[in-house]
Design goal:
The complex is a heterodimer of chains A (321) and B (282). Chain A is α/β, with parallel strands linked by helices and 321 residues long. Chain A is built from nine helices and twelve strands. Chain A has an eight-stranded mixed sheet, sandwiched between helices. A four-stranded antiparallel sheet of chain A has the order 2-1-4-5. In chain A, helix 3 packs parallel to helix 5. The two termini of chain A are 24 Å apart. Chain B is mostly helical. In chain B, helix 2 crosses helix 11 and helix 8 packs across helix 9. Chain B is elongated and about 75 Å long. Classes of the chains: A alpha/beta (321), B mainly alpha (282). At the A-B interface, helix 2 and helix 3 of A face helix 8 and helix 9 of B.
C-alpha cells in the first residue's frame, strides 16, 4: 500500500444531549477510537448501517466538526491544531461531495455562481473575463452542458445537481475527496454514471477517495480498502476489495446484499436481536446481542482491533474463516 | 431585490393585490407631494371658519381651530408613514442582526437573547410602547424608538427561526468545507435566504405600527402640535363629535384605509411568495 494521505489516530467524537433544561446529560460516542490510514491514490470505503458513525467520521476527517479525542493528520499536518487561516489554506486540498444534491446547492445561486464560490472563498477569483471559461471547463469536466451555467438548482435534476456538486468540489483541484453516500439519493441508472465519473477522476487526477456508503456491493466494486463500522467503532478492515469478510457483522452485511441473479440468491437470515442504544453501550462487544457466534467472553470483554493473520484488521473474539 | 419580480407580477395580477397596491401608491404619493396637493397650510388657524361642514371651500371641513382637515390629513399621512416605515425599518435591521447572531452562534448568547425576546413578547406592543414613552418622554422621536423596540421581538424571533432552519442545510456545510468563515456563511447564504419572510412580516408590522402611532397620538404622546397626526386629530375630534363628527371620522377613515391596504398587500404578497408556513415558524 502507498503512503497514507490521511492518518486518523484514536479519533473519537462524543455528542452530548440533554432532555429539557434540567434533564440529565446523555452522551453518545458517534465515533470511538478510530485508527485508520487512507492511502494516497486509493479508494477507501466505509460501510455500516445508518447511525454507525460513518458520516461523522467523514466530517471528522475534514474537520467539519471538531474531534473530541484523537487526531487527524493530512499529508503530515495535524489539522486539529491549525489556526483558521491555515485551515482555510489546507481545505483547498480536501473536499467533500454530499449525499443530498437537492440541498447541497444554495437555491439562490446560479450554477455559475455556485462553481465560482470556491474561488471567491479562497481569494482565487479569476478576473471577470475568465470566469465564464472557468465555469465552462468545470461543466465540461463533469459532462454537463455549458448552457446550465445560468440555470438555478431547482431547474436541474438530481443527477445534474450531483455533477455540479462534484464540479464544485473539484474546482480547487483537491487531493482528497470525501464522498458521503454520493449516489444514495439518486436513481440507479444515474448512480452508475456518477460512479463512472468518479472512477475517471481518480485515474485522471490521482485522487484519493474516502467513500462512505451503506451499500457493501458498491463498495466492493469501487474500493481498494474496505472499513466496516458498527456503532461508532471499526470492526473490520479489509485491505482487498475481494477479501472474504471474517467478522460476523461484515458477513451479515454482505449476506444482506441483493443478488441480481436468482440462482445465486441465498436465503437471507435476518439479524436477530436488538441494536444496543448508542447512549448506553454494553461493556463487551457492541455486536454481541445480534451475533450468532457470541460467547460469554464477547459479552464481558470488548475485542480490540488487531492485525489479522489473513490480512487486514479485525475486532472479534471469534473471527470466521 | 429580495422579493422575486415574478412574485410581484403574480401579486399584481390578483384583484386584491392590485387594488391594495393602487391605494397604497395613492397614499404614499399624497404624503410625498403633500405641499403640492394640500390646498391650505395645515397649521393656518381661522377661528371664524371653525367646525365648518365638508364642502366646496374645505373638502373635508375644518377642525375646531378652523384648520383645513383635508390638508391636515395629507400631512398626517407623512407623519404616520414616516413613523411606521422608520420605526419598523430600525426594528427589522436590529431584529435581523440579533436573530441571525443568536440562531447561528447559539450557546449562551442565544439563551440570553431568546429569554429577553420572549419576555418582551409576553407584553402587548401598546403596553411596551407606553412604558418606553413614559421613560423617554412624549414626542415623535421617542414614538419611533418605542415602536421599534416594541416590534423588535417579532423580527428577532422570525430571523432566528429562519437561520436555525437554514444552517442545517447541506449547502452551508459545503460552503464551510470550501473554507468559508462565519461572515461568508451568514451574509452570503443564511441572511439572503432568510430575508424574504422577514420583509413581508415587516410590511404587515408597518400597518400595526401606524395604528400604534395613532393610538399614542390619540393619548397625546406622539407627534406634538402643530404637527398633524391622525391619532391626535381624532383625539381633538372627540370633543366636537356631536357638533362636527367629520373631525374624528375622516382621520379615522384615513387610518383604516391605509392599514387595510397595507394588510391586503402584505397578505397577497405572502400568497404570491408562498411563505405562509415559514412566517408561522417565528
Amino acid at each position: 500500500m502507498s503512503a497514507p494521505l490521511v492518518s486518523m489516530r484514536g479519533l473519537g467524537r462524543t455528542f452530548v444531549s440533554r432532555k429539557g433544561l434540567f434533564g440529565a446529560h446523555r452522551s453518545m460516542r458517534a465515533v470511538d477510537d478510530v485508527t485508520l490510514d487512507i492511502p494516497a491514490g486509493k479508494v477507501t470505503g466505509v460501510v455500516g448501517e445508518s447511525g454507525c458513525g460513518k458520516s461523522t467520521l467523514a466530517r471528522l476527517a475534514l474537520r467539519l466538526i471538531e474531534a473530541s479525542s484523537g487526531s487527524v493528520t493530512f499529508d503530515g499536518t495535524d489539522i486539529g491544531s491549525l489556526e483558521p487561516a491555515a485551515m482555510r489554506q489546507i481545505r483547498r486540498r480536501m473536499q467533500m461531495v454530499f449525499q443530498d444534491p437537492y440541498s447541497s446547492l444554495d437555491p439562490r445561486y446560479s450554477i455559475a455562481d455556485c462553481l465560482l464560490e470556491p474561488f471567491a472563498i479562497q481569494g482565487l477569483m479569476p478576473p471577470a473575463r475568465q470566469r465564464a471559461a472557468q465555469v465552462d471547463d468545470l461543466l465540461d469536466m463533469v459532462g454537463l452542458a455549458r448552457s446550465v451555467a445560468s440555470s438555478f438548482p431547482h431547474q436541474l435534476s438530481g443527477g445534474q445537481k450531483q455533477r455540479v456538486g462534484i464540479a464544485r468540489a473539484l474546482a480547487l483541484k483537491p487531493q482528497l475527496l470525501v464522498l458521503d453516500e454520493p449516489t444514495a439519493s439518486l436513481d440507479v441508472s444515474i448512480q452508475a454514471q456518477i460512479i463512472e465519473l468518479l472512477e475517471r477522476f481518480r485515474d485522471d487526477f490521482g485522487l484519493t477517495y474516502l467513500f462512505i456508503s451503506h451499500d457493501l456491493g458498491l463498495v466492493r466494486y469501487f474500493c481498494d480498502q474496505i472499513v466496516v463500522m458498527y456503532l461508532g467503532r471499526i470492526v473490520e478492515v479489509m485491505d482487498r476489495p475481494d477479501a472474504r469478510p471474517r467478522h460476523p457483522y461484515s458477513r451479515a452485511l454482505l449476506n444482506s446484499t441483493f443478488a441480481p441473479d436468482p440462482a445465486k440468491r441465498r436465503v437471507v437470515t435476518p439479524m436477530a436481536g436488538e441494536i444496543p442504544s448508542p447512549f448506553a453501550l454494553p461493556p463487551g462487544c457492541a455486536f454481541a446481542a445480534r451475533c450468532p457466534q457470541a460467547s460469554a467472553l464477547c459479552k464481558a470483554e470488548r475485542p480490540t482491533l488487531a492485525e489479522s493473520t489473513a490480512g487486514g484488521r479485525i475486532a472479534c473474539h471469534h473471527p470466521q474463516d | 431585490m429580495t422579493v422575486p419580480s415574478s412574485a410581484l407580477g403574480r401579486l399584481l395580477r390578483t384583484p386584491r393585490g392590485l387594488g391594495a397596491a393602487i391605494v397604497l401608491a395613492i397614499i404614499v404619493l399624497a404624503a410625498i407631494l403633500a405641499p403640492v396637493i394640500a390646498p391650505y397650510d395645515y397649521a393656518a388657524q381661522n377661528l371664524r371658519n371653525a367646525n365648518m361642514d365638508p364642502g366646496a371651500l374645505h373638502w373635508l371641513g375644518t377642525d375646531e381651530f378652523g384648520r383645513d382637515l383635508f390638508s391636515r390629513i395629507i400631512y398626517g399621512a407623512r407623519t404616520s408613514l414616516t413613523v411606521g416605515v422608520t420605526s419598523i425599518s430600525i426594528s427589522m435591521v436590529c431584529g435581523m442582526a440579533l436573530g441571525a447572531a443568536a440562531g447561528y452562534f447559539g450557546g449562551a448568547f442565544d439563551r440570553v437573547v431568546t429569554m429577553v425576546v420572549d419576555l418582551s413578547w409576553s407584553f402587548p406592543e401598546i403596553l411596551l410602547a407606553l412604558i418606553l414613552i413614559a421613560i423617554l418622554g412624549p414626542g415623535l422621536a421617542s414614538t419611533m424608538i418605542a415602536i421599534s423596540i416594541a416590534y423588535l421581538a417579532q423580527f428577532t424571533r422570525l430571523t432566528r427561526a429562519q437561520v436555525m432552519a437554514l444552517k442545517s442545510e447541506t449547502y452551508v456545510e459545503a460552503t464551510i468545507s470550501l473554507g468559508a468563515g462565519s461572515g461568508h456563511v451568514l451574509f452570503r447564504h443564511l441572511l439572503p435566504n432568510a430575508v424574504t419572510p422577514v420583509i413581508v412580516a415587516g410590511m404587515l408590522a408597518t400597518g400595526d405600527a401606524i395604528i400604534l402611532e395613532a393610538t399614542l397620538g390619540f393619548f397625546g404622546l406622539g407627534a406634538q402640535p402643530p404637527t398633524p397626526s391622525w391619532g391626535a386629530m381624532m383625539s381633538s375630534g372627540t370633543a366636537q363629535i356631536f357638533i362636527a363628527p367629520w373631525i374624528i371620522i375622516f382621520p379615522g377613515l384615513a387610518i383604516a384605509i391605509t392599514v387595510i391596504a397595507i394588510n391586503l398587500f402584505g397578505d397577497a404578497l405572502i400568497d404570491a411568495l408562498d411563505i405562509r408556513q415559514r412566517l408561522r415558524e417565528g
